[in-house]
Amino acid sequence: MLKKLLSTLVCTFLFAGAALAQGTITGTVTDGQTGDTLPGVNIQIPSLTMGAATNVDGNFTLEDVPAGTYTVQATFVGYQTFNQEVAVSAGEETTIDIEMQPDVVGLEDVVVTAFGIERDQRALGYGVSEVASEDLESRNQSDVGRALSGQLPGVSISSSGGVTGSGTDINIRGYSSISGSNQPLFIVDGVRFDGGNNASSSWADGGGQQTNPHRLLDIPPSNIKDVSVLKGLSATVLYGEDGRNGVIIIKTKSGSFGEDQEPGFNVTLNQSVYATQISSRPDYQDEYGGGFDQNFGWFYSNWGPRFDTDNPNLFGSDFRGFADDGTVLIDHPLTQHGATAQAFPDLQNADYRYEAKPDPMGSFFRDGLASTSSIGINGGTQDLRLNLNYSRNEEQGFTPNNKLNRNTFSIGAEYSVFSDLTAQTTFNMSLTDVQSPATAAGGGSGPAAAGGSTSVFGDVFYTPRSIDLSIPYQNPQTGGSAYYRSDNAIPHPRWTANNVITTNKTDRYYGKTELNWQAMDRLNVVYTMGYDSYTESQAYMQNAGGIRPEPLNSGFYQTIDIARSTWDHTLNAQFDYQLTEDFTLDGTVGGQYTTESYQRQGVESQNQLIFDFFEHSNFTDQSSTNFFTGADFQRQENVQTAGIYGDFRLGYQDFVYLNLSGRNDWFSTLEPENNSIFYPSVNLSYILSDHIDINSDAITFVKLFGGVATSAGSPDPYSTRTTLATDARSFVNNDGTVITTNATSNFLGNQDLKPELHTEYEAGVDLRFFENRLGLQASAYTRSTTDLITQAPIDPSTGYSSTFVNVGEIENQGLELTINAKPITGGEFQWDVKSNFYTSRSEVVSLGAGLDRIQVGGGFTTRGNFAIEGEPFQVMYGTKIVRVTEEMKQNDPNFSDVEVGTPIINSVGSYQEQDDIGKIGNPNPDWELSLSNTFRYKGASLSFQMDYQQGGDMFSTWISTLLARGLTTTTTKVDRNNTFILPGVNEQGQPNNVQISPSSVFFDNFGFGTDEMRVYDMTHIRLTNVRLGYDLPASVLESTPFSQVTISVTGDNLWMYAFNVPEASGFDPNVNSIGGNSRGFEYLTGPAARRFGGSVTLRF
């Protein structure tokens, strides 16, 4: 009894002591401009994970707060976050009044510039665009590139298709190099980050190139805090030649350390689940089956008899009778090829219904599923701050055997070593594994197209409406493909999906160590050592039995291993001085030394021994060179760049800022006499509204800015020297001796080669209206590139075929506009609007060196993108229709009365093709526009983004194949029993009178005729993203361990309409099948993806 009494007394005193050691915080929250009270405001003490919400009168109470000093944080949609330090005494009530300011378009925004230097946006003499983490997370994409699409003016983003893990092409302010990369520089937490796709190592089976994943795939969007984009040379000059194409600065959550971060730890959990589908599909016709000219045949095309025909003569020996419902019965498709027929004896006498089978795309593709799980932990002590993040992404694409697995782990730490010395380090690990069926570019004309490229999408497109993809696809005796062609000349799509596989596995490690020394009151010195290292293993495997030229059909296995690393050392001194009462001076001086190494090893094996076993020992023949291209897999590169730079900003009375910058680089890729180059920059920012009293209630802020900057572009490694290729095991002679051979390249090094030179002029305005509720930012620029580095042919008698030379000039002009508006703010309902506009024009001013045109990409033959003097860069050239010219009218009396431009028809009634290629289009859009709206009411939010593109031509194999094969409803709008006469004149100038069949109209002309007929205007509008989110109110979370719970549903690429393509094609223009400097060519590399799903985020 005494023990119980003592225990009771002890517990009573303990709880009483705890209660006496606690206090209460109360207060009222009001609008800082109107004075109105604000209900539903979230009130938190982040370090204690305590929270409450204001009631209808704007009042709140935080009870049982331990005695101490804390930061109280108030957040409410449409308002700036409020923080105030509050001291809580034991047993007492502390009252604070909170005035929240509307979060309008700010004037004092701080933006991240080169080398992570933060500057006031008002003082910048160039434009900087930013994207916040919530804008990235709302775009449920697996890679950063796609998540940025449409959110930044002047930034164009396209993909090779909707295949999970497929490549992404990012371009800022157009193209300015013929042979060099036009991709931007990526900086992640202050470290150079290789964002390429190692396209030079891609396998190519006769021309069609397999697109590798873009290495931005290694960064999960869920770990990104914000993104800054430096577009102009004035903004990127400190990065040297690597920044000439713009810089994308990514700050991750693990590499971000807030000064107001309190002791303790916060945890964020997120789970997202999304479904993926093909975004659009063709409108297939259900009236006609395989054949030509109304007669049945086992062809790819659908110009055969109607499905409801009762005429057995149209089917020849394949006719077997009629079903009870009148449907024609024919031989089974798998009886057409001898070896296949023997493998399926039960089908020899089987009837096969000649009828419209299920939509081949609908029956082949599936609904994909993506799941992303992440956890983030941040916090620490007064001197040590830690961030840990882990993310796992698992995704199955809509294409069979397409999947992505990614695991990323990152840790960041910041430690106050001394009062004037801070150390910061980050470490990131990303393990990415992508698998996909072969998606090489295809030409739409069966396996012979593009040299025999293997593409599962091409195989699907060749499916006649009378063929069911559910029929057996694999020969049970050989494992090879079984399909409907009499010569088995096309693989079954399901066989391709299961037997022709590409894999890409990457292990990546990157991070930095940084020391920041506050040397003096207004001077600090920062040393950063950054590293980015990864190994990438690519594999292409095809089982024996495929329907492709040798060596693919006998089994093929190719592996390529790549090791790439970058080490970057920078030393910066940053200062900030008040020179006089009116003048300020701040800036940065520093140096940078970068080393890059690249190693590639590869083996290619042919003639498989055991089916479905992929080891090089299971193949009889091995080689270290690509069978199709002759390229050597082995390659090693080492590049060093050293640079010194300075950036000085002089301010006058806080309304004029003059910025002078410059950098000098030394390149190891150039000879000593040409490897040093200096590029200066000067820009000015003038805040007119601070200098002159505008005296207007409508105009709040006016800034004018402008400048001129330069940069350079160095050539690829070893462009100045002739290289030697060594094959350590070229062959073994009769006595068993291993012979090593050496061979010089057919490329002649040019020791006089110089860097490309870039010069850009930029001017713009920053305007704010109506107390900052409306903002307009505009930038116009002109950029010219001279001394273009290009590969030029030389006389073969020299022993070489080509060399690199400096020739020509490209000019690029553009305009970027951003409008931000807050039509409704200051209450429970908020409405935000943002719109981006971008237009750009490029022109090849000159080429020089006797060059008429330079092909820069695009095609497999002479068709492609070109640089031609007086034309836009990347102008599209290909085969064209012969048309009547003014010269013909003047010199040939047969054409004197014929209108210029009239097509000439050949003797068989089709368009006559020119001997030489000509201009068929311009892939560059006239302009692009995006519009996003966000509506908020209390804890709920609804946002959507729409994108519009005006103009831009595309050569589409998707559309032309559908037309040529008679697959869509477009081809049934004509009477297939009639004949047609194409408008035009014959070679004697007389009106064409040759009648041709509908299949000839579509197949020989609109589909697979001249390249000119396969180009379409890509004007389109798209509903890019829709998101509905809800934050649970703090009052609901009071009894839970959570400080915030957010639930959201999101859809991406939900709707699209292309105005100038055949309606039944279902074609999405946002593809770029080849990548690199190619644009405007689509080669069946896959349909675009639609994604929709939801996520839950928990913070405590």
Describe the protein in words.
- With 1100 residues, the chain is mainly β.
- Among the domains are: 82 residues, Sandwich (Immunoglobulin-like), CATH 2.60.40.1120; 67 residues, no CATH class.
- 8% of the residues lie in helices and 46% in strands.
- It contains 13 helices and 54 strands.
- It has a 22-stranded antiparallel barrel. Strands 10-15-16-13-14 form a five-stranded mixed sheet.
- The chain is globular.
- The N terminus is likely disordered.
Separation of termini? 43 Å
Helical content class = under 10%
What CATH first level of the domain at 19-100 would be assigned? Mainly Beta
What is the residue-mean pLDDT, rounded to a whole number? 87
Count of individual helical segments: 13
CATH superfamily of the domain at 19-100: Carboxypeptidase-like, regulatory domain
Q: Which outline best applies?
A: globular
Secondary structure class reads: mainly beta
Q: Any low-confidence stretches, pLDDT <50, length ≥5? A: 1-20, 200-209, 447-451
CATH topology of the domain at 19-100: Immunoglobulin-like
